[in-house]
Design brief:
It is built from 13 helices and 19 strands. It is globular, with a radius of gyration of 30 Å. The chain has about 550 residues and is an alpha/beta fold.
Length: about 550
């Protein structure tokens, strides 16, 4: 019996081993067959796309994506996600398209395909839908939450300013009649706190005496764009620099000194050497902080793009008082992910990187910018598009970016260079509709007319972390959607319509008293010409 038992045990073990080998071989063979068929499945997906069967094509792509991911073939993974996103877009399932393009950006990044990753992220952002709620409150209720204590900085509110000396409706350089400090407020219906003009490094301050005199008489500040056009090497710790600082201090005019701006762009002669740039900026800052302690704030102001090199030019917190940024939008349909000839970019969010990187340390300054009312390449009027983007910018900026403390409009149609004759259309006096929209936009008391003023209003986010007080509140929304413009936003609570707004920032009075002590969902529906664009839900706590 003992021998028989041992024989039986050996036989069982032998059979078990053979079965294990067979199963393992079959599994490996099956895996290899599946892996070998990946490109066959890909071809099936392409064939389905050609027949307009996008949902079925998506299913095929999703079947093979894990194979590429598991093998760390990130370039192929990114490609498949791109095709999935494109097919979802054709089905008008834009949220799913965004999710796929986000994955494309992720995996192309892992494959070191930087430009492809950037392009994928841009596509996703253009179609990404989201909603944020804000409540208007007294400035005292937010205290110093949005301030840094920087020179000239208001605790709440943003100074409005402009570059206006090249608008013939408000300025005549030959006669000084009219002069922009007097005429631009008449044009726009509101006094502006400061004006931008450019100054070539190496010249005496006397060359801009009339600008300083008019600024002093009008009670306005100056954003002085100091440009070392001969290159950074001309900036030395010498008598010229010290005298320039002393003269500005003696002028009695408050100056935001923007030295060598847009240094991250290859269109300026002080580009390409961050180390030298930082050295010269710190020198200028040191001299002006010493020689002009009362009347000069140092502004470091890159262009909003390219983003990747911005931080390499930062001179340090001790040298910088304000962080500025150039912010422009010109209609550009070439980047439309839906290929419908639209510009779906958000003018408001284009400086988001700058804000997130520096606003915790420094007040942020839109040191120049605008939205063009013409598509220059085609000479097409885009006034309606420009008005919407402008209004959205000025109405939502105080809510979404409360640490922006100044915003300057570039009032000119003459922004041309030796390298380009491309006209850029920002001039308010040349477009009555745009002018009227600007007047309405800056009429908000949040926008300040004199350095030293404070806004009587502020805005706080409304969500589960920042509760809204029970009672009737003035609520506004930032609606980000794939549609270039919106015409209406509705608010629903508990399935009931509680408010409708027909203009950005979609402000409405909503009574939260019935929901005191509760957590509720506010459902926002955004429309364009009566077509529902997106439905977004915001969870809100009511205290």
């Amino acid at each position: 019996m003992k021998t028989s038992s041992s024989t039986m045990t050996f036989a069982r073990k032998l059979i078990l081993a053979m079965v294990t080998i067979i199963v393992a071989f079959t599994t490996i063979h099956t895996y290899e067959a599946h892996a070998m068929n990946v490109w066959g499945i890909y071809k099936e997906a392409v064939a389905l796309e050609q027949k307009g069967k996008y949902a079925e094509a998506i299913a095929k792509y999703k079947l093979i994506i894990p194979e590429f991911v598991n093998k760390k073939e990130y370039g192929n993974s990114a490609n498949m996600y791109r095709y999935v996103g494109n097919d979802y877009a054709k089905l008008k399932q834009y949220d799913d398209a965004v999710a796929a393009w986000d994955k494309e950006a992720e995996y192309s990044g892992k494959a070191n395909q930087t430009q492809i990753s950037i392009a994928a992220k841009r596509k996703a952002d253009m179609l990404r839908s989201s909603a944020k709620l804000f409540v208007e409150t007294k400035a005292g209720d937010v205290g110093t939450s949005y301030t840094h204590g920087a020179k000239f900085e208001p605790k709440n509110g943003a100074y409005i300013g402009a570059y206006a000396e090249r608008d013939p409706a408000v300025h005549n350089a030959a006669t000084s009649k009219p002069f922009y400090t007097e005429k631009f407020p008449e044009l726009t219906g509101k006094k502006h706190a400061a004006y931008l003009f450019y100054f070539t490094y190496g010249q005496p301050l006397s060359t801009i005496k009339s600008h300083l005199d008019h600024a002093r008489d009008a009670g306005t500040a100056i954003e002085l764009g100091v440009q070392p056009l001969k290159g950074l090497s001309e900036v030395q710790d010498n008598e010229y620099l010290h005298q320039l600082a002393r003269d500005i201090e003696a002028s009695g005019v408050k100056v935001f000194l923007r030295f060598a701006n847009e240094m991250n762009g290859d269109w300026v002669p002080w580009h390409a050497d961050p180390k030298a740039y930082i050295e010269k900026f710190r020198l200028v800052a040191k001299v002006f902080h010493q020689e002009a302690p009362n009347n000069v704030a140092m502004v470091w102001a890159p262009d909003r793009q390219p983003e990747y090199s911005i931080e390499s030019y930062y001179p340090g917190d001790d040298a910088v008082d304000w962080v500025g940024v150039s912010l422009y939008s010109i209609f550009n349909p070439t980047l439309d992910p839906l290929k419908q000839g639209e510009d779906r970019s958000s003018h408001l969010e284009k400086f988001d990187f700058i804000y997130k990187t520096y606003s915790a340390r420094k007040p942020v300054f839109i040191s120049e910018g605008g939205v063009a009312y013409m598509y220059p390449e085609k000479q097409q009027d885009k006034t309606s598009w420009a008005i919407y983007k402008m209004k959205e910018f000025y109405s939502t900026l105080p809510m979404l970016y409360p640490k922006v403390k100044a915003a300057f409009w570039f009032d000119s149609n003459h922004d041309q260079t030796a390298a380009s004759t491309r006209m850029k259309y920002y001039m308010l006096s040349a477009n009555e509709k745009l002018l009227n929209a600007y007047k309405k936009s800056v009429s908000n008391p949040f926008y300040l007319s004199t350095v030293g003023d404070e806004s009587p209003v502020a805005y706080k986010p409304v969500n589960t972390a920042s509760a809204v007080t029970a009672g009737t509140q003035k609520i506004s929304a930032y609606m980000k959607t794939w549609s270039p413009t919106l015409s209406k936003v509705t608010y629903e609570i508990g399935g009931k319509l509680v408010a409708t707004a027909t203009d950005t920032p979609w402000t409405a009075s909503i009574n939260f008293a019935p929901y005191k002590g509760k957590k509720i969902d506010v459902v926002l529906k955004a429309y364009s010409n009566n077509t529902l664009i997106t439905t977004q839900k915001v969870a809100v706590s009511v205290k």
